[in-house]
User: Which sequence fits this backbone?
């Protein structure tokens, strides 16, 4: 019985090692799988992995409308105080007061791209962009206001 | 016509006609030394480049691609850098042994070159105990490694050297046993006889499964003997920084590095000679037409082709497998490789006695 187990063990080892070697041989012979980006040379044709996280942005549509309700869920979710939501009260046409954002301040210099704010957002108002060339000469340029000036909330987003 | 043996014999004849025999011998010795050093430096450049490219493609990277066309001069640039760097001897190190160690490793590698047959009738020294000589000399390099580890006066170096010693001493057994299978089949220790015996087919094909098993064991054992991944415990970057050559810099480091690659070349050359027929072209039994076509490819091309194929296989191992722990390493040798190769040796002996091989 011992000898059968011994031979099985050797056979299993050879088979699993061969599986690994087949994988590397596949990569060796298929150069289209190469994922290296020759960055400064191919700036124009740079291909990003889908989940690469560069900075937080707030998408606006063509009417300069965003989806942010000012609920501050992102501000609460952020572990290092990167986002600050400044709210104001809009008067709706029928005379009711409605909470809305005045400014959504984003400190890129504090952000660790952890994606927690995007996961916390109930109305998909913010997302991660893939821009990554963030260096500037002055720290104040890294503090950004995410909503465009004069923008307002999209109809139907509560 | 333009074979290596033709060139060497015509040079020999010309020297003997022009000078007295002793002066001719002196010139030939100088020529051989120059050729050996030239071969070593070219091998270093080519093999390091090959390793970097192979590793890059296996890991879905591009590898060096800036210096020269497709990065082909990267190793030349690296060598230049190593040559102009200062060779520091650390304070507290044993100066004499520290500076001697890289040369011992290098000399062991050079001595191994002597009985290797590079082409038909092109060999430095066709000694009648060639295989024994190879297995004896290849153990000398462990002395150089132990010397380097001890003289560095550094615990990482010493640990790396000790591991390397344990590893080389254990794996020499199964390497030796798998070499003996071929010696049994051939009935000679002479390299030329072993190559000639494979005229009607390489031992790997003639010897059935037992020789295939001993070929695989040989490949594993020489990978361990040259201290390469997955058996690179002597260096083990993540544990011992660089093992026995932690304290070396500049040209002395380069000598260790070069010796590693030259050793790979030599063990692959020996593997190609024993199992794949050395410079012998691919012959199948008595298909004389096919054999005749194969003879048109020069014997040196066959030898280097086989050797580089084996080098590629060893690089393939390195860039696929994770490193073994020291206990796993010794388990593999003493519990698996050694019993299997002993049993295999008995099988091959039976096969040789009963004449079951082709």
Assistant:
């Amino acid at each position: 019985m011992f000898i059968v187990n011994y031979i099985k063990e050797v056979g299993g080892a050879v088979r699993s090692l061969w599986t690994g070697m087949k994988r590397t041989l596949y990569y060796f012979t298929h150069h289209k799988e190469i994922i290296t980006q020759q960055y400064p040379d191919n700036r124009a044709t740079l291909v990003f992995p889908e989940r690469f996280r560069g900075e937080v942005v707030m998408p606006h549509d063509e009417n300069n409308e965003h989806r942010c309700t000012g609920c501050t869920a992102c501000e609460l979710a952020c572990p290092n105080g990167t986002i600050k939501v400044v709210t104001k009260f809009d008067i709706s046409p029928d005379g009711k007061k409605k909470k809305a954002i005045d400014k959504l301040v984003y400190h890129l210099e504090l952000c660790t791209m952890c994606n927690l704010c995007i996961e916390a957002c109930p109305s998909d108002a913010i997302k991660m962009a893939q821009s990554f060339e963030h260096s500037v000469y002055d720290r104040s340029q890294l503090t950004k206001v995410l909503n465009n000036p004069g923008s307002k909330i999209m109809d139907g987003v509560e | 016509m333009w074979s290596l043996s033709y060139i060497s014999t015509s040079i020999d004849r010309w020297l003997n006609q022009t000078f007295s025999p002793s002066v001719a011998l002196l010139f030939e010795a100088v020529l051989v030394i120059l050729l050996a050093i030239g071969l070593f430096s070219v091998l270093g450049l080519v093999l390091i480049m090959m390793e970097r490219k192979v590793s890059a493609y296996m890991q879905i990277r591009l590898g060096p691609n800036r210096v020269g066309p497709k990065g082909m001069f990267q190793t030349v640039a690296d060598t230049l850098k190593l040559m102009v760097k200062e060779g520091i001897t650390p304070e507290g190190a044993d100066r004499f042994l520290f500076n001697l160690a890289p040369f011992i490793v290098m000399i062991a590698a050079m001595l191994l070159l002597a009985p290797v047959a590079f082409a038909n009738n092109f060999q430095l020294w066709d000694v009648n105990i060639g295989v024994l000589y190879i297995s004896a000399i290849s153990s000398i390099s462990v002395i150089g490694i132990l010397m380097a580890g001890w003289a560095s006066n550094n615990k990482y170096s010493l640990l790396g050297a000790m591991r390397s010693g344990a590893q080389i001493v254990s794996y020499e057994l199964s390497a030796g046993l798998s070499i003996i299978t071929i010696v049994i089949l051939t009935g000679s220790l002479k390299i030329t006889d072993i190559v000639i015996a494979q005229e009607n087919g390489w031992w790997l094909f003639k010897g059935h499964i037992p020789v295939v098993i001993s070929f695989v064991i040989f490949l594993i054992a020489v990978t361990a003997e040259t201290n390469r991944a997955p058996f690179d415990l002597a260096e083990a970057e993540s544990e011992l920084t660089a093992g026995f050559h932690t304290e070396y810099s500049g040209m002395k480091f380069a000598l260790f590095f070069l010796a590693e690659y030259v050793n790979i070349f030599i063990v692959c050359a020996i593997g190609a000679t024993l199992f794949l027929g050395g410079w012998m072209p691919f012959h199948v039994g008595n298909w004389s037409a096919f054999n005749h076509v194969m003879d048109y490819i020069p014997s040196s091309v066959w030898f280097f082709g086989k050797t580089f194929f084996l080098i590629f296989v060893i690089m393939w191992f390195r860039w696929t497998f994770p490193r073994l722990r020291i206990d796993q390493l010794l388990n593999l040798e003493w519990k698996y490789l050694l019993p299997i190769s002993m049993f295999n040796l008995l099988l091959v002996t039976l096969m040789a006695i009963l004449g079951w091989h082709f």
Remarks:
- The mean pLDDT of chain A is 85.
- Chain A has two domains: 2-34, 55-153.
- Residues 63 and 89 of chain A are 21 Å apart (CA to CA).
- The two ends of chain A are 70 Å apart (CA to CA).
